[in-house]
Amino acid sequence: MSTVSPDMAAKIIDGKAIARSLTEQVGRDVAAFVERGNTLPGLAVVLVGNDPASEVYVKNKALQTHRAGMRSFMHMLPQSTSQAELLDLIADLNANSQIHGILVQLPLPAQIDPVVVTNAIVAHKDVDGLGEINAGRMALGIDGIVPCTPLGCLKLLQSVHTDMQGKHAVIIGASNLVGKPMAQLMLREGCTVSVGHIHTRDTRALAREGDILVVATGKHGLVRGDWIKPGATVIDVGITRVPTEHGKTRLVGDVAFEEALPVAGHITPVPGGVGPMTIACLLHNTLQAALLAQNVVSRPDQKV
Ligand SMILES: Nc1nc(=O)c2c([nH]1)NC[C@@H]1CN(c3ccc(C(=O)N[C@@H](CCC(=O)O)C(=O)O)cc3)C=[N+]21
Ligand SMILES: [Mg+2]
């Protein structure tokens, strides 16, 4: 980025590099696991419909899965797929001993209830950690599978904070996919946690209180420079493709990056921040699921 001076560059949390090193670690652990006579860990990714952006992510996931030495099973179903057909596929994947992790890409077409589908995945293969068993375990502070995006955000935060106890973590967005599980993780770190959402009266004032600010709203550019407490660590989960004046497109986050950069202590870029970490954590969760299936550990070790 040409407008970024060298001392500014030091503030940018390099999600791509941190994701690469996590993926390499998973790859070494997979090799050791196979060396001990275990079957290759396998991840099934299910995509319903043909949203071009989702197809890019799904292909990226398959590529990274192979890079970590695991097997990848892709299921691309038409937009018209019924809920019953999808549940049949999930039942097959649940029963297939070659498959240790199952991820159904969200959002799903209107005729399919995402809650029903998510809960149809057997808990020990729920590598997204979104089913009621893993979500409940996290709420109760019991080890389980932690959702990939919040886990990736936590690892990015840990790259700049050795201890987050007592810090005020403000999370903007209260989705089941990111905001709610992120709040649980930050509580577990000993943070004071606030969650802002669509009905919050003064989101800017709330955001400005955050020593740590995690933004996951899907509204690109929502968080301006003056929404950020000077020196705060900012994690931008948003990723939106917008047109440029040259008739091309580019990816932007929920944070107005150029404004936020001089104010924040540390900040994640888009692309190259949370996105690559989400995929690396998916691989990490898949290996944990395979360890669980082989009874190497009695519960997925998600102590992070
Ligand atoms: N059940 C489910 N689990 C998910 O984790 C899930 C999902 N559904 N639905 C869609 C969102 C989105 N998502 C991304 C993953 C990687 C990048 C990623 O790798 N982004 C790159 C850029 C990729 C590009 O160039 O398009 C980056 O930020 O650097 C982005 C977005 C996972 N999601
Ligand atoms: Mg990103």
TrEMBL record:
Domain Tetrahydrofolate dehydrogenase/cyclohydrolase catalytic: 13-128
Pathway: One-carbon metabolism; tetrahydrofolate interconversion
Signal peptide: none
Pfam families from the UniProt entry: THF_DHG_CYH (PF00763), THF_DHG_CYH_C (PF02882)
GO molecular function terms attached to this record: methenyltetrahydrofolate cyclohydrolase activity; methylenetetrahydrofolate dehydrogenase (NADP+) activity
Record's function text: Catalyzes the oxidation of 5,10-methylenetetrahydrofolate to 5,10-methenyltetrahydrofolate and then the hydrolysis of 5,10-methenyltetrahydrofolate to 10-formyltetrahydrofolate.
Family: Belongs to the tetrahydrofolate dehydrogenase/cyclohydrolase family.
Subunit details: Homodimer.
UniProt-recorded name of the protein: Bifunctional protein FolD
Organism: Gluconobacter wancherniae NBRC 103581
Lineage: Bacteria, Pseudomonadati, Pseudomonadota, Alphaproteobacteria, Acetobacterales
